[in-house]
TrEMBL record:
SMART domains: AAA. It comes from the Bacteria. The keyword Endoplasmic reticulum does not apply. Residues 5-240 form the ABC transporter domain. It comes from Thermodesulfatator indicus (strain DSM 15286 / JCM 11887 / CIR29812). InterPro entries: AAA+_ATPase, ABC_transporter-like_ATP-bd, ABC_transporter-like_CS, Metal_Ion_Import_ABC, P-loop_NTPase. It holds the Pfam family ABC_tran. Coiled coil: none annotated. Signal peptide: none annotated. One of its GO terms (molecular function) is ATP hydrolysis activity. This is ABC transporter related protein. Keywords: ATP-binding, Nucleotide-binding, Transport.
């Protein structure tokens, strides 16, 4: 089976500052991968390269076997950006339904209005994050944690094959976080491939199958079991100042 995401000898610089160095990583169908690393270690940059939002200066990335710069079927990847709530414009009156509906746009042909099916999909996605009550609310009137859940609904509404999440539960209360992780695990069991950047070792311990530790270079990549039993673990954590909160 070919990997869904193949990263080969990837280098990325912001100006003359090297942020990703010779990254090689395969992500396979059904993986539930956590990417760990300290602040500024390149995690968001790596996700943006995978999504085709940033163009690496060296190396290549393939999605479903196709070079990312040629890949057109964007709806096959769902993305929850880091601090998405910071982008909410309080003046622009978008409803929750419209925001989640944006997640359907890449999949739709012209005309791009929402059909009954679309509205159903939007409602279902909101239900999964327990936000269906807010369908007709203005996004800017919701709390940060509620907005975050709406962004998660937007990422899953098109039934993507890969879900990429960048610290998705920042600002979400512990109980909702727990239910959200259970939802991710359920989606993963149904075949969804998940890549999550997180500082939360709770989800890492409970649900993820693979762990990658990034600190400009990929300093570790293996299964969760190997990660936990690795005699090098403490060394990796110490050397690379990984933030691990035990629950
Ligand atoms: N647009 C940019 N221009 C210049 N430098 C940037 C830019 N975005 C990020 N950087 C720098 O690149 C490095 C990696 O940033 P990145 O956002 O990928 O880190 P991260 O691992 O996601 O960190 P965090 O855990 O804080 O989210 C950091 O040193 C950051 O300051
Ligand atoms: Mg980041």
């Amino acid at each position: 089976m070919n990997p869904l995401i193949e990263i080969r000898h990837l280098f990325f610089w912001y100006g003359n500052r090297l942020v990703l160095e010779d990254i090689n990583l395969d992500i396979n169908q059904g993986d539930f991968l956590a990417i760990l690393g300290p602040n500024g270690s390149g995690k968001t940059t790596l996700l943006k390269c995978i999504l085709g939002l940033l163009k690496p200066q060296k190396g290549e990335i393939r999605l479903f076997g196709i070079l990312v710069e040629k890949f057109k079927e964007k709806w096959r990847l769902g993305y929850v950006p880091q601090r998405a709530t910071a982008l909410v414009d309080p003046v622009f009156p978008l409803s929750v339904e419209e925001v989640v509906g944006f997640g359907l746009i890449p999949k739709k042909r012209f005309p791009r209005f929402f059909t009954r099916e679309d509205r159903k999909a939007i409602y279902q996605a909101l239900k999964r994050v327990e936000m269906e009550k807010y369908l007709h609310h203005r996004l800017s009137n919701l709390s940060g944690g509620q907005q975050q859940r709406v962004f998660i609904a937007r990422a899953i509404v098109s039934y993507p094959e890969i879900l990429i999440l960048d610290e998705p539960t920042t600002g979400i209360d512990a109980a909702t976080q727990e239910r959200f992780y259970d939802l991710l695990a359920e989606l993963n069991q149904k075949g969804l491939t998940i890549v999550i950047v997180t500082h939360d070792i709770g989800i890492v311990n409970k649900h993820v199958k693979q762990v990658a530790c990034l600190n400009r270079r990929l300093v570790y990549h293996g299964t969760h079991e190997e990660f936990c039993s690795s005699p090098r673990l403490q060394q990796i954590i110490g050397e690379h100042h990984l933030v691990i909160h035990r629950h």
